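Q: I'm writing up a methods section and want to include an example of the input and output format. Could you take the sequence below and give the corresponding predicted structure tokens, formatted cleanly so I can copy it straight into the document?
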Amino acid sequence: MTIKSFINIKDWLINLGLNEQLSVFLNSAFILILIVFLAFLSDIITKQIILKTISVIVKKSKTTWDDIFLEKKVFNRLSHFAPALVIHYTIAYALADYPNWVDGIQTIIYVYMIFVAIRVFDSFANAMHGIYETLPSSKDKPIKGYIQVVKILVYFIAILYAYGLLFNKDMGTLIAGLGALAAVLLLIFKDTILGLVAGVQLSGNDMVRIGDWIEMPKYRADGDVIEISLHTVKIQNWDKTISTIPTYALVSDSFINWRGMQESGGRRIKRHLNIDMKSVKFCDEEMIAKFKRIQYLSDYIDKKREEIDTYNKENNVDLAAMANGRRITNLGTFRKYCEFYLKNNPKIHDSMTFLVRQLQPTEKGLPIELYVFSNDQVWANYEAIQADIFDHLIAVIPEFGLRVFQEPTGDDIQRAINN
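A: Here is the clean output for your methods example:
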């Protein structure tokens, strides 16, 4: 028996003695109740049987994309069409005696299905983005911003269409009317437009990727990029806080991207020690003999002495005056020791910039700077390598007759007073 055949129930009601108007009303009400029951039943069948069956099949499959569709609730949201379609195709039978009500209810059903379609599209877009993120190329070319733009366009068109259905307006008329509000729309969607343009530039110029370590002091951001969207870029700082930066700020403002360092295989160590200039002097024979006992310097001392002796003899240098000719200094020997020590350190990158140099002397002494690269980029390991190097050099400096410059403290002043 079809739903249409239930329309004849009004004749049965009339035969029972009810008036025709009440019989028509009760007939329509009965069919409406039946339609609501069928809609409810279709919802139960879809969600409790079909969706669960799909879920079992998906979990047993070897592919991952269907799991993502299930996780993003694409199938779940599709199920909301079932009761709407039941009502849409049966409401005309229920309200055959009230034709003026049919169009209104069907319009509401159309609007409901439009919003269901939007939610399905939203889930589908999220699923496609999830599938894309499983690809290696997603690290270099994030597309979340583009997906958000498409979503906004779809939402906007769907809302316009729903408005047109509810108020019987033509889409062309609505779009033409929006043209007059272009300035207002540009103001409303300013951040969206800026974010879209910035997203294209960031992606096209490969300025930032998911996982990059970036530093942007203006926004107190210093950490890894965890998300790039249409409007914002999220950065997880090293203290585990999250900084949110407008996407267009990465184009309009400056920031540091440490990706180059991460890809180079090395991490720069650039630090100096301030040497007390009063401790710098020429080496006497006793100091030279002491330096020769240092493993790293033994061959260097022999070659350096031979080189200096040859120069002084060729130039008839009067060595009675300390200012004449060339001589070995404790500071120069210490610089060479630093070079040999670093070159024999397995944690120092041997094919990147390697400098042990003097900087401009200041009121705080003579800086000896190490400019080298570690071959371990992990932050904790890098700091440990750097600390080990300077622990050793600070401890070994007195062996060269040198002193590290240090501002006098209360203890120093007290010691001087006591002496």
